[in-house]
Amino acid sequence: xxxxxxxxxxxxxxxxxxxxxxxxxxxxxxxxxxxxxxxxxxxxxxxxxxxxxxxxxxxxxxxxxxxxxxxxxxxxxxxxxxxxxxxxxxxxxxxxxxxxxxxxxxxxxxxxxxxxxxxxxxxxxxxxxxxxxxxxxxxxxxxxxxxxxxxxxxxxxxxxxxxxxxxxxxxxxxxxxxxxxxxxxxxxxxxxxxxxxxxxxxxxxxxxxxxxxxxxxxxxxxxxxxxxxxxxxxxxxxxxxxxxxxxxxxxxxxxxxxxxxxxxxxxxxxxxxxxxxxxxxxxxxxxxxxxxxxxxxxxxxxxxxxxxxxxxxxxxxxxxxxxxxxxxxxxxxxxxxxxxxxxxxxxxxxxxxxxxxxxx
Length: 360
Fold this sequence. Notes:
mainly beta, ten-stranded mixed sheet
């Protein structure tokens, strides 16, 4: 499970700070054997972030309008695996009446306002969903409030890992500026019944307007440092530990909506180490740590992921956000995902970082 290891704002050399919102994980076996984390499904926000994957997987994502009034939302889908454009985007506006819920199939998109016989244009804001080819790919979705009641959107997504495989479910990550502050994360992992989707997904995006985000090369979150005391600020190293708390340091890593053009390594979705390789790129050098934590005598571990900084196009005007997801297996055919969202607030707290490709 994700644990917030700090309870107060912790200033780094760049004076960056993050707002963390852990989200409860939904699975057939409850909350992965623990109590729910911070947020409940009835806590509304003005923007939701989802992960999707169609590489021998199916993805459904859902939105509910909890208010009694009509809202208009801006749906943006970013495709990391697009062969034509890096982090290619499709988008449209959708309309939800009060109390309305709609489920989108990422490979068969239908607008809420045109479903069940509705027609685009019946509401001036209603648009038909685009019809992109999102098969055999992956990326993320942002749904932002355009107009209507604030804090009325809740959502979740489901990823089915192949025929008869694990079903991973969790709430979408949402921006909540009343959450606790942190700059460091601890992620638990295990080898229960295989590791079908034990990947660390890191989504970095920049807010360019209240209802619009952008992502792609140059917009990333950087974790870890290369030298010095592993736990000492500023910028401690990434560390991975086994269940006996024996640790190994790891190279810095970066998360952004891109793929290395030479190695084809994903910068959005990474494996943890050699014992838990990336679920869809097991043969590529796509993992956070160059180690093998899990073994026959060790079936659990945890990853210390310290924030280093953001990179974005316009620090002075725009806020930058990082949404993370980590797949977990429950051992009974069901899975869940931890999710959390962090924000870099106000450009004066940020400094540009040199672009980094891959890790280790």
